[in-house]
Each structure stands twice: as structure tokens, then as C-alpha cells.
Amino acid sequence: MNIKYRVLIAEDHDLLRNGLCSMLAAQGEYAVVGEARDGKEACQLAMTLAPDLILMDLSMRGMNGIDASAAIKRRSPLVRIVALTVHQNEEYVREALRAGVDGYVLKDVSFDELLVAMRAVMQGKKHLSADVYGYMVGSFITGREAAGPKKAWDILTARERSVFKLIAEGRTNRQVGQYLNLSPKTIEKYRASVMHKLAIENLTELVLVAISMGLLTSLASKCAEPEEDDRVARLPSTRPEPSPSETGEPPEAPVSRLSDTAVG
């Protein structure tokens, strides 16, 4: 009888998550023991269920997959994590690897290729999708492009991106702090820094910028008005203290071929 590895699936798209569960159930060596819809839930289930392997979506609402992977690896360094994502650029790959993921797999791969990645990391190896590996090699050979004007998303640190997206979704400083395990005062500093860098003066402008980046679909995506002590004030005349560069929140991405395979 084949040994079954205990698998936790963290994916916010129900169809893809259910499809992965069904296909893995047919594999004798894996047993799905839990499902998470966001990074915070993934952290909680990782502690209570003690899985051997986690399939981690990187683009989830609230606490994203990179932050969740880092938190899980700090507490359970032996658990294996395979990142599932549509992002193959160098920044995402490096941040995910720094967070401790063992595999990086694009969602447009076949299910068989995902199984290869899962088996590789369970053997203690690192695994990158062929396209990601090719992109990284090409980037190394050709070097970085000449520096030019940075887009709004590029001038934010990784942590500022996480805070920016959560605030754009309508969360208060207190709620954002609970997601990221930071104090409301620290979140306020990140928030002020984001607004300064993007030349934003109020919450409406912040939401409009988020929509222009594709992080939100409309103003209706914004939650209820924040509490009085969390309302966005006009920018101070002095530049806020710079925020440390930490793990961030990737933008939402379209459904990929793996999801079609999984649910089809």
C-alpha cells in the first residue's frame, strides 16, 4: 500500500480547489486533509492539521500566499510548500523562494506536471516550472533592463503592497493589522507612506488607483466606510519614515489552464 502524504490546499477559487481535491483523491500517495480559502486560514490549518505538503495559491484576498508561506515555515520548517500561481516574473519568484516555498508551479501546467513538482519537493528538492526556470535563466543572461520610470506598483515595497490592497478592499487599520500581525500604528505608517508615494490624499483616490491597477473591479468592491480613527487624513507636509521591504501581495490574475483542467 502506498504511503499517503497529507496535503493542505490553500486556494480562493472554489472550482480550482475542488478540482484539485478530486484529482488528488485519485492518487494513492496523497490524502487531502484540509482546504483553506485565504492565507490566514492556511496558517491556522497548517498548525492544527500538520500536513506534509501545502499547495499554496499566491494571489488570495486578505493574507496572501507569500506571507502565509513565510509564517508557516517559521513555525513548521519541515512542511513542504508548492506555490501555485500565474505569475512568472522574477520578483514574484524571488519573494516566494525567500518566503521558503519549495516549489513554484504555474497554473497553466498539466496535472501530471504538478504531480512531478509535488514528488520532487517531498524528496527534499526544489522545483520550478519549466517556463519559470527558462525565464529566470533568460533574465540572468540578458540582465535587467535599463532603469526607467517606475509604475505605481513598482515604487511600493512588498509590505506596502499588502497594506495598500487590504485598505483598498475596505479594511480598517485594525483589521489590516490583524491579517498581517502588525499593530494599527504600524499599519498607519505604511498607509501614510503608500499615500505619499502614490500622491493620494483620500480613500476614494486610493480605491480608484487600485481599480486602475486591476486590484479591484469597481468602487462597489470597497467595504463599509472605515471607523473614525481609521479615516484617511490629508498627507502630512513631511515625508513619513520609509517602510521596510517585506513580503507583499500580488495583484489578482485571470483564471488559467490548470484551473480549466482541474474543474473540467
Structural class: alpha/beta
* Widest sheet, order of strands: 2-1-3-4-5-6
DSSP strand count: 6
The outline comes out as: globular
Over the alpha carbons, how many angstroms does the gyration radius reach? 19 Å
- The stretches of 5 or more residues where confidence is low (pLDDT under 50) are 143-149, 218-257, 259-264
Quote the average pLDDT: 78
CATH topology of the largest domain: Rossmann fold
Q: Count up the domains.
A: 2
The proportion of strand residues reads 5-15%
Number of helices: 11
Helical coverage, percent range: 40-55%
Protein name: DNA-binding response regulator
Organism: Paraburkholderia hospita
Biased composition (Low complexity): 236-250
Domain HTH luxR-type: 149-214
Give your account of this protein's structure:
The protein has helices at residues 14-25, 39-49, 65-75, 90-99, 111-122, 130-142, 158-168, 173-180, 184-198, 203-212, 257-263, and strands spanning 5-10, 30-36, 53-57, 80-85, 103-106, 127-128. The chain has eleven helices and six strands. It has two domains: 5-143 and 253-263, Response regulator (Rossmann fold, 3-Layer(aba) Sandwich), CATH 3.40.50; 158-230, Arc Repressor Mutant, subunit A (Orthogonal Bundle), CATH 1.10.10. By secondary structure, it is α/β, with parallel strands linked by helices. It is globular and about 60 Å long. GO terms for molecular function: DNA binding.
